[in-house]
Amino acid sequence: MTDDGGEADTPGEEAGKMAGQAPDRHPLDRGLNTGSSSGFRDLLEQAIEHHVIDEVVSHHDKELLDAVRERAAVRANALLYKGVLAALLETNPNRFQRLLERLAASKMPILDICDDLVLPIAHELGRRWSDDTESFVTIAVAMSRLQRFVTELMAARRGLIAVQPDKRALFARMPGNKHTLGISVISACFAEDGWIVDGGSDLEIGPQTKDLLKKTNYAFFGLSVGSLCSLHDVKNVLSDARTSVPGSRLCIGVGGPGLIGRGGMFVEMGADFEATDLRRAISTADGMMH
After folding, report:
1. Sheet strand arrangement including 168-173
2. pLDDT of residue 192
3. Upper half-sphere CA count for residue 208 (Cβ side, 13 Å)
4. What pLDDT, on a 0 to 100 scale, did the predictor assign at position 61?
5. What is the rounded CA–CA span in Å between residue 122 and residue 240?
6. Is the CA virtual torsion 234, 227, 278, 212 positive or negative?
7. 166-223 residue pLDDT tens
8. 3-state secondary structure of 167
9. Among 50, 88, 100, 214, which one has the highest count of C-beta atoms within 10 angstroms of its own C-beta?
């Protein structure tokens, strides 16, 4: 163990340092490959597509150029997906931390990071757990890192986001709902869209939630529902939210694993929409502001 709580370098890594090699390089630095040259070939092909083909095609066919750029973006996202997944599953947390810092410093929108990386990776981790291809400990650590990834990404970007005072949102989860990644993701994406966001994965429905709804002029209330949540309890929460904000138009969205197999039920109970898609949830909430 190191002083910062991370894993100590492996003997191979230590030997590399002593020999003057670059220490502990992330798979992205090595072309996402551990021994073959295919990763480097991928990166080389991307460089050719970005710099050489662009120059040639731009003088002839704009549609072809757009297609080439789209293909290059898809390849880059695939490499990034593999890199993040590999870093999450690594024993040494330092590689994951460095990747987090790179993404936080990049211009890639949080919405794209969550939609293209975080949620698909969470789904893949769940699949591996179901298929028993990874241990419980490995998946638990990876999910914990993914949760922290979203939290730290939002913290790093917070000072760069221009908030709009009339766009204020409250997010909370039903009691017993332990699936907090989804509500962290949607909270971060709403914040990036200019919303002032209160609550989140740490706020469970209860007296504090009612107090916040009564005292603050929220335009949006997001409720995360677990698969074992009682429909009767959810209906009461939605009703309480409506009556807690008298005389205003409160937009309510319901999301979470509790939607599976119960689509449409929460709208019948009083929600304005069911959040099954990040981008649609944000656009719907924005649309109801006007």
Report:
1. 196-204, 168-173, 220-224, 251-255, 273-274
2. 93
3. 13
4. 54
5. 32
6. positive
7. 899 999 999 987 778 999 999 999 999 999 999 998 999 999 999 999 999 899 999 9
8. coil
9. 88
Length of the chain: 290
Q: Are strands 168-173 and 196-204 parallel, antiparallel or unpaired?
A: parallel
DSSP-derived secondary structure letter, 134: S
Distance CA 129, CA 136 (A): 7
Average pLDDT value for residue range 135-142? 91
Quote the CA–CA distance of 223 and 242 in Å, as a whole number. 13
Residue type at 256 in one-letter notation = G
According to the model, what pLDDT value does residue 165 have? 86
User: How does 263-281 read in b/e, with b if 16+ C-beta sit within 10 Å?
Assistant: eebbeebebbbbbeebeeb
Structure-block tokens of residue 60: 């002839």
User: Among candidates 71, 94, 113, 109, which has minimal Cα distance to 24?
Assistant: 94
Give residue 240's region: left, alpha or beta (phi > 0; psi -120 to 50).
alpha
In single-letter form, the type of residue at position 6 comes to G
d(CA 262, CA 74): 33
Tell me the pLDDT tens digit for each residue of 231-243.
999 999 999 999 8
The two structure tokens encoding residue 169 = 């949102």
Distance spanning both ends of the chain, measured CA to CA: 54
Extract the tokens encoding 106: 């990049």
More confident residue, 125 or 159: 125
Per-residue tokens: 55: 């120059």
Inter-residue contact 201 to 173 (CB < 8 Å)? yes
Are the beta carbons of 149 and 87 closer than 8 angstroms?
no
Q: State the burial class of residue 174 (Cβ atoms within 10 Å of its Cβ: 0-12, 13-18, 19+).
A: buried
Q: Name which of 153, 169, 151 is nearest 275 in CA terms.
A: 169
